[in-house]
Amino acid sequence: MTDLDVKQLQRRLAEFASARDWQQYHTPKNLVSALSVEAAELVEIFQWLTPEQSASVMDDPESAHRVTDEVADVLAYLLQLCEVLGIDALAALAGKIERNEQRFPVGSAEPKIPRRHSAE
Amino acid sequence: MTDLDVKQLQRRLAEFASARDWQQYHTPKNLVSALSVEAAELVEIFQWLTPEQSASVMDDPESAHRVTDEVADVLAYLLQLCEVLGIDALAALAGKIERNEQRFPVGSAEPKIPRRHSAE
Amino acid sequence: MTDLDVKQLQRRLAEFASARDWQQYHTPKNLVSALSVEAAELVEIFQWLTPEQSASVMDDPESAHRVTDEVADVLAYLLQLCEVLGIDALAALAGKIERNEQRFPVGSAEPKIPRRHSAE
Amino acid sequence: MTDLDVKQLQRRLAEFASARDWQQYHTPKNLVSALSVEAAELVEIFQWLTPEQSASVMDDPESAHRVTDEVADVLAYLLQLCEVLGIDALAALAGKIERNEQRFPVGSAEPKIPRRHSAE
């Protein structure tokens, strides 16, 4: 598969909106809001689950579909935001990982409760 | 560029966390929370901006960097969530676009205030 | 009306949860998550509305009810979080306003895009 | 203490904004966004904490102050939103609790994972 899939997906998203005359709604402010709403819908799925229940959320077809669906929604708005703002999302992440590899060298003392961790 | 970039990025994210012994924090619940926090940080950049100011946020190097940085953070947690849950994010979005093309056929009456639009 | 209403509401919320054996879910982490989910549901109501449409959201009985309902949900989780953590929400806000009156004296130069404003 | 504290707080919040000419920013859309951003800042405090660490977050003066501060910020935006929209927040919650007491009678079968619970 090619990274053209990201570009292809962005193109399909743009065509989808354009064909329905919906780009008028796709201002950066509205897109970041929509993204945050979808992110909250992802949180909602896990909200009352115990860690054990969370770990097996993909074992049940219904919850697996809900999670996958919300992941798609978050990605949709993220890619549309990037399209509108001219941001290359994958390049942005690659650059961030590199910066973090500098900021958080392996073997340095790790904060007990890292304010952020993972590649951030 | 290839879609291997998504897989490469996921691998680098996993290696980054692993090398710092941070995967212990990367439960699905924590990852969706972290994703929602980053999405809110994106919202925050635009919060008090007018539509005009929002439209030119990428013209200023400092705000452009902030936006790109938060986009990277959102994508980082989304991809790590997908890794942990075994979800193919691009395939999920492609499937969602197809379902939405069925649900919202062009030419049907559009709701005045669409509850959701774009590929959702 | 008395500020006892806040205490009364907290008591009724606690009794409601207790009678249904739901306090087990009301850990601080779960409560802050739930609060953020309800806040996003509030955002969602306004998401695609223009400023004009937003301004008249309380004129339509259906959207007025939705907004009021989500305000109630946000307040419910905020008060329950405060109950669980032993925080006096009104006192916290009063203290914050005072600190902000010091931090943002009237007549000093205001940032063009205040990072935060209002009593924050 | 009287419920006038809520009204007093709303008045002080309005005066604070007015004195700095900040009401221009306080559209309903901006206020719900700001509220969601503050709610995310609350989530962020707890994000990587274990349940045990979360339970003792108020024992450490620094984290206790952070939590109290964000609670104040969430409440500030909620009350300002209610002021702008003409919503009585405490009455809204009281009404919601009553409706929920009908919707979720004690003794009926509780869903194992309630989609919502507490007074919602």
Structural account:
The structure is a homotetramer of 120-residue chains. With 120 residues, chain A is mainly α. Chain A has one domain: Orthogonal Bundle (Helix Hairpins), CATH 1.10.287. The first copy, chain A, is 67% helix and 0% strand. Chain A has 5 helices and no strands. Chain A starts with a helix and ends in a 17-residue tail after the last helix. The model of chain A is unreliable at 114-120 (pLDDT under 50).
Number of domains of chain A: 1
CATH top level of chain A is: Mainly Alpha
The chain pair forming the largest interface, with residue counts per chain, is: A-B, 74 and 74 residues
- Shape verdict of chain A: flat
Structural class by helix and strand composition of chain A: mainly alpha
For the report, how would you describe the main beta sheet of chain A?
none
Radius of gyration of chain A: 18 Å
Quaternary: homotetramer
Helix-strand topology string of chain A: HHHHH
The strand count of chain A comes to 0
Give the helix level of chain A as a range of percent.
Answer: 55-70%
Within CATH, the superfamily of chain A carries the name MazG-like
Mean pLDDT of chain A: 87
Number of helices of chain A: 5
Uncertain parts of chain A? 114-120
The appropriate CATH architecture of chain A is: Orthogonal Bundle
> CATH topology of chain A, anyone?
Helix Hairpins
The N- to C-terminal Cα distance of chain A equals 26 Å
InterPro entries (chains A, B, C, D): dCTP_Pyrophosphatase, DCTPP
Protein name (chains A, B, C, D): Nucleotide pyrophosphohydrolase
Organism (chains A, B, C, D): Streptomyces luteolus
